[in-house]
Amino acid sequence: MSNIKDVANLAGVSVATVSRYINDKGYVSEKSKQKIKDAINQLDYKPNLIARSLSTKQDNTIGLILPDITNPFFPELARAIEDVCIEKGYTVILCNTDNDAKKERAYVEKLLQKYVAGLIITTNLLESSEYEKLNIPIVGLDRVQNIPFPIVTTDNDVGGKLAAETLISKGCQNILILGGPENINSSLERIAGFLSYSNQFEHITVKVIPSFFNYKKTYDIVLKALQMSETIDGIFACSDTDGVAAIKAARTLQYEIPNNLQVVGFDGVSLGEVTSPSLTTIAQNIYEMGELAAEKLIMQIEGKENIIEHIKIAPQLILRESTRKENKDDYGNR
What we know:
Blueprint: H1 4-11, H2 15-23, H3 30-43, H4 49-58, E1 61-66, H5 73-87, E2 91-96, H6 101-113, E3 118-121, H7 128-132, E4 138-141, E5 151-154, H8 156-169, E6 174-178, H9 185-198, E7 205-209, H10 215-228, E8 234-237, H11 240-252, E9 262-267, H12 271-274, E10 280-283, H13 286-301, E11 310-313, E12 316-318
Parallel strand pairs: 1-2, 1-3, 3-4, 4-5, 5-11, 6-7, 6-8, 8-9, 9-10
Antiparallel strand pairs: 10-12
Helix pairs in contact: 1-2, 1-3, 5-13, 8-9, 10-11
């Protein structure tokens, strides 16, 4: 007697996709529907009603793939996603990959075995083709780029420009950018935005160095950078975690912030409010990002929408104690 796995194998789709087709619950492409229908007819498959009931319950589960749960940005993002999913009757399974492609791949396989209804991915470790072949609803969030699914991100280019304008308008001329890991698209966009603004000023020098979005490692990097160059008067960190680390390193070396060194972070997590001095930051609308990603995924699952688009949400500047209150009147001289 054939089973649902036999149907999935013959149709060339996942078991979760066959389950959604059988229960008429969630998105299945027309091409896959025809393949599953042909496989069912060929195998003379008769769904078990008890198994069907169980799979229906499992279809209310959503997988959330995160790169690093110790980065305070991602728990705040996860909370927004969970709030929306619970309200809509879905349960979220959180998977922390530790920035490890092998671990991410293993999580995806486990989630498919649990017949998850869809995935929200916030990483950039696997090739898009690996997600395309899953044939389930997917939404990319934050770091994900260039995939054929709906994507929700901050407008990182705008945020980078805003950071540059802030530091330069407050008198910084020798600026260090803590660029984060070199393979993360969101950081590269922030750097590009910063440089597109700063390059207008002949008297402004900018140096970009990689960092790790990790407090201890970035602390050591900034400590070394400041010891090697006493002319640095501004730091743009592509994450608030790195920004807080930069403040700590500078204070270790007896820098007065913001008098002789100013720091701007990026994220807007609560950590930046409680450090001393508090961190000026380019704040992402974290809750709105997570909320929108969850809503778009659920609309796919329920067959209401599958518009492939890249939604960019504008960040905003939050001025705190790590930058001067006043602007320099002559900063516009180029």
